Amino acid sequence: MISQHITVALEVNGQTSEVSAMADTPLLLVLRNDLQLNGPKYGCGLGECGACTVIIDGVAARSCVFPLSGAVGRKIVTLEGLGTREAPHPVQQAFIDEQAAQCGYCLNGMIMATKALLDRNPSPSEAQVRLELAGNLCRCGTHIEILRAVLRAARLMNVDGSP
Fold first, then answer.
1. How would you classify the pairing of strands 59-62 and 15-22?
2. CA of 21: how far to CAs of 8, 53, 66, in Å?
3. Tally of structural domains, the chain
4. pLDDT (tens digit, 9 = 90+) per residue, 56-103?
5. pTM higher than the cut 0.90
6. What is the DSSP string of 4-54?
């Protein structure tokens, strides 16, 4: 099957942008190259590591294997859509507070997967968090800090009612 060139409107972080690319272009490339959103990272390119995770219609999705054509008409949220330096989202703040980063490459995926989890389940158990993040790879060994950050984010979001 030969992919065709398409021009589509994408809703990303609450804003609509028109992009033009091949229909099977990975969403990750469109986000990074066309929309200059660098939160999602290119990791494995196979949907295995989680570095490219975004939220599509409330569900964590691997943007490196998600075709542009499948994103049309859907609400996409990237790391840039969560919070700002001045006002981080509670998930971002929890990762800062727990110092849950070394190199930072996995953080996009960890944070986005956490946001999707807490939207579905505001009070996950440690076992549920571990299961949810099992497909997100961190080679620096900050797994304990990441786990603490997710549980802290759940407490923060339950206290202040943040989205």
1. unpaired
2. 9, 20, 14
3. 2
4. 999 999 999 999 999 999 999 999 999 999 999 999 999 999 999 888
5. yes
6. -EEEEEEEETTEEEEEEEETTSBHHHIIIIIS---SS--SSSSSSS-TTEE
pLDDT in tens, 8-59: 999 999 999 999 999 999 999 999 999 999 999 999 999 999 999 999 999 9
Q: What is the CATH number of the domain that holds 118?
A: 1.10.150.120
Q: Which domain holds residue 115?
A: 90-160
CB neighbour list of residue 153: distance below 8 Å, 6 or more residues apart:
90, 91, 93, 94, 95, 114, 118
State whether 71 and 103 are in the same domain: no
